[in-house]
Amino acid sequence: MKFFNIALNNIKKKFGSYLMYLISTIFSVTIFSLFCSIYFNPQFLKYRSGGSKMGVVFQAASIAVILFSSIFVLYSNKFFLKTRKKEIAIYSLLGMRKSQIGKMLFYENIIMGIFATLCGIILGMVFSRFFTMILFKLMATGTKVTFSIQIGAVVTTIVAFFVLFIISSLNAYSVIYRYKLIDLLSASKEGERTPKYSVWGGLLSILLMAIGYIISMRMNTNAGGLKLLLPACLMMVFIIVGTLLFFKNFIPMVMVKLKGNKYFYYKTANFISTSQIVYRIKSNSKMLSVITILFATTIAMTSATYSLYRGLEDVVISYAPFSYMCKNIDKTQYTDIVDRVKQIGKVKITSANQFGLIKAKVQSSTYSIETAKTPGMIAKTYILSQSDYKSIINNTKPKIGTNSSVKTDFNIELMDNECYFIDGNSTEEYSKNLKGSQVNVNFGNKKSSYDVAGVSLHKYLGMLDLYQIPTVVVSDKVYNRYLKQSQSGDVDHFKGVMFDEPMNSESTVDALNKIVPARLNIPGVPNVSYIGFYKGNFSIYGVYIFIGLFLGILFMLATGSIMYYKQIIEAQEEMTRYDILRKIGMNKKEVKESIEKQLAIVFGLPLLVGLTHTSFAILTYNRMLETMGKDTPTLFNASIVIAIFIVLYGFFYAISVKKYLQIVWGRE
Predict the structure, then answer these.
(1) What is the SS3 assignment for 420?
(2) What's the number of CA atoms in the CB half-sphere (13 Å) around residue 384?
(3) d(Cα 323, Cα 117) in Å, to the nearest integer?
(4) Are 457 and 631 in contact (CB under 8 A)?
(5) How many CB atoms lie within 10 A of CB 470?
């Protein structure tokens, strides 16, 4: 127990050094505890075991948290042990046996681990209800959350982090056995030789990263499965290898060149900061590479998650432009709809559209559907009258534009030889050249040609797979002529209604689905409703958004903490040198300026390179989201996330500078 008390006293005396480590570790435990609490919550049971299998997502996220926490704890522990090697050697010189020193270090890690685990579990329990409410809000479930303590979550968290801290403590215990006494005494002098680098390695790093960027910008984001996986993997390999070589060769090469520039180097602040960086950059290359890749991954993931959330409502509109839409119902059934809506009283019908779509075929020398990619093919199409389309636009109120599923620019009076082409494809690639050309419409045994007066991607029926076919809008006169020639089965009749409060229509829609036949032939979709797609999208993506944001915050906190620990360790190793500089006349202001420049380079390089990686990742993501990329300001949303992360990162830079200065100057 004597060594346990010594370990406890050591922690008390050096609590300030452990504080950032504790905060980050407690946060890791808290996040893991939160995920477990939500997973074991009985109110989440139907989501984790239902068709959506959200439990699998939470399990994967929990594994990611514990793996990342393992890397973070072991990496941080390595930093702390490096600063204490000389202290450990002194213990040995004073007569302490290796087993006694090992026990002391083991107990220190165990105490810190127990403290972090207990704090994390308590915080996880305290905030579990609040964050479960946030999750259910993101999922649009409307479920009321009650506070409860989940024993399964507590046990799982204790077991997971007990194993982690035991491993960390055993690693600390083994330090005294893995190093010779002379190595422990001279640990602070490691890695201070002028770095060697390869010029070709530096140039290769730029080339590899450039190739990765080119692949990301030329990637066919419409491809799926293995076709998209291969270029994505190649891009990641090129960028990761390029980043490693960049910090191993290119940055040391630049810093050595700067050191050789007398106009830059022989300035007081530059002299010190550049010298420090030159001697340290090589040994820090792996850490800076990992931080850069982690930084880019974190910002890209969080930006994508935030943009996805901001764009979900636009996606819902593209799937359900009407509050409620059904197919091929008669007047009696529509009367039943109106009566049931009034009877329930939750919402009111503000407008209704009934329109017939005549089945035909269309052909153009340049047009094809994206699944076939055969220009000149004969494709299925609908014929719609311009008066019906104008009425749909007036009631559903889409945005003004063309190259979007939720936009249209139709505001003209069509001549009998003209048409307005509504493409069923997801991108403008297949119909962008149609305006001003002619399309042929085949109906029955007759073929007619029309001049294309305008083109749009407007999904006025919604983006249902069975209805993603083009529509030819013609004048009322031409439409009526086709209608007279039509036979039974040639026309699909749709009825779309708008509610005054579609978000309050869930019970109404459930009641209507019981009286209106489901004729859309879409699995799991009885009739199209805004609230149905809203809850369906948010219930699926809400979990991903919740996890993405929390993991992003966790990774960012851990990244900043690692950078902080590393600088504090180097500050402790530089105390003697700064003592000499102070004795030869260097004042505190000059020292602070040199520290600020030195740490600005260390913190700034991963930030700049990481932001470059992130920019290309976000641009690629923006192209993948054809709907949200155009209707939701994805790049603007990403810039908000980037700004927040830069502020957080700047906080770690500021406290690192302050602590560094305290260490090298704070002693009298």
Answers:
(1) strand
(2) 28
(3) 49
(4) no
(5) 22
pTM of the model: 0.69
b/e 323-351 (16+ beta carbons within 10 angstroms → b): bbbbbebeeeebeebeeebeeeeebebeb
CB atoms within 10 A of CB 497: 23
* Three-state secondary structure of 38-56: HHHCHHHHHHHHCCCCHHH
Q: Please say if the pLDDT value at position 627 is more than 90.
A: no
> For residue 310, which of 582, 541, 475, 14 has the smallest C-alpha distance?
541
**Looking at residue 628, what is its pLDDT?**
46
Secondary structure (H, E, C), 440-476: EEEECCEEEEEEEEEEECCCCCCCCHHHCCCEEEECH
| Cβ contact 290:458 at 8 Å | no
Contact 457, 403 (CB under 8 A): yes
- The strand pairing partners of 326, in sequence order, are 495
Could you tell me how many residues make up the chain? 668
Q: What is the 3-class SS of 71-102, one letter each residue?
A: HHHHHHHHHHHHHCHHHHHHHHHCCCCHHHHH
Helix H or strand E segment including 438:
strand 438-443
Distance CA 260, CA 266 (A): 10
One DSSP character per residue, 275-316 reads HHHHHHTTTTHHHHHHHHHHHHHHHHHHHHHHHHHHHHHHHH
Q: What is the DSSP letter of 399?
A: E
Residue-wise pLDDT for 489-540, tens only, equals 889 899 999 999 988 888 898 888 888 877 665 655 678 888 888 887 777 7
Count CB atoms within 10 A of the CB of residue 164.
22
Neighbours of 103 (CB within 10 A): 19
Phi, psi values for residue 330, rounded to 5°: -95, 180
What is the distance between the alpha carbons of residues 312 and 306, in angstroms, rounded to a whole number?
A: 10
Identity of the amino acid at 228:
L
> What proportions of the chain, in percent to the nearest 5, are helix, strand and coil?
65, 10, 20
How much is the pLDDT for 4?
65
| Residue 524 DSSP SS3 | coil
Confidence of residue 629 (pLDDT cuts 50, 70, 90): very low
User: Tokens 């609490």 label which residue?
Assistant: 37
DSSP 250: I
Phi, psi (deg, nearest 5) at residue 527: -145, 155
SS3 357: strand
Tens of pLDDT, residue by residue over 46-97, are 666 554 556 677 777 777 777 777 777 777 666 666 666 666 666 666 666 7
Q: Residue 191's pLDDT band (boundaries 50, 70, 90)?
A: very low
